[in-house]
């Protein structure tokens, strides 16, 4: 049922949002030049790599670290607006449609963080990664949180990331189609926590 929902909703979403996707593409093209899309290898279900698609929000060849901090110079003014309203993540609907991702599931990480997982924690790789999750709801304002820390990268690695792993494991044990619908609805209305 989950995969049927993902296929139907992602296809419908892409059709409905096609004009908006086209407008964003043109604005990025004219204001930030190419590339329009940010493409990065992430680790998916069963540890298999895939290419994640997002609208580009940063300068090219910025050489930054693996976390994003609000107000960084590498984030363009247009990119900041896209990130604020999560519009940069709309191309991930394509990842859902072709089976790399689901609407709900642990956010896909780069291999650097996957390699930090313990054997037990790697259970989260048994399901498709998602566009949203309980961890995504809790850390909706992650960029602001890490920006307020004295050492943003250390704070992310030692505090935020382990908590995300905990939440992902909790989701894995309690997931259901009904829970997924609650998470999707919570994401839409801006709720920061749902009961699983």
In short:
This protein is mainly alpha-helical.
Strand order of the biggest β-sheet:
1-2
Distance between the termini: 19 Å
Topology as a string of helices (H) and strands (E): HEEHHEHEHHHH
Overall form = globular
Structural class based on helices, strands and sheet pairing: mainly alpha
Overall average residue pLDDT = 93
> What is the number of domains?
1
Overall strand count: 4
| Uncertain stretches | none
Structure description:
The chain has 196 residues and is mainly α. It has one domain (2-189). It has eight helices and four strands; from the N terminus they run αββααβαβαααα. The strands form two sheets. A two-stranded antiparallel ribbon has the order 1-2. A two-stranded parallel ribbon has the order 3-4. The radius of gyration is 16 Å and the shape is globular. The two termini are 19 Å apart.
């Amino acid at each position: 049922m989950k995969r049927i929902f993902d296929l139907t909703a992602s296809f419908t979403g892409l059709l409905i949002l096609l004009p908006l996707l086209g407008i964003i593409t043109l604005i990025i093209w004219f204001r930030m030049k190419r590339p329009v899309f940010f493409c990065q290898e992430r680790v998916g279900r069963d540890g298999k790599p895939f290419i994640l698609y997002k609208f580009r929000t940063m300068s090219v060849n910025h050489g930054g670290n693996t976390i994003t901090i609000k107000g960084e110079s590498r984030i363009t003014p247009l990119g900041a607006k896209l990130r604020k309203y999560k519009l940069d993540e709309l191309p991930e609907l394509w990842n859902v449609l072709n089976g790399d991702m689901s609407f709900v599931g642990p956010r896909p990480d780069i291999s650097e963080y996957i390699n930090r997982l313990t054997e037990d924690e790697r259970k989260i790789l048994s399901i498709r990664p998602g566009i949203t999750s309980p961890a995504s709801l809790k850390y909706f304002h992650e960029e602001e949180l890490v920006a307020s820390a004295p050492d943003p990268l250390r704070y992310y690695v030692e505090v935020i990331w382990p908590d995300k792993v905990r939440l992902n494991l909790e989701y894995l044990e309690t997931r259901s189609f009904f829970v997924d619908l609650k998470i999707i609805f919570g994401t839409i209305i801006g709720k920061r926590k749902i009961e699983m």
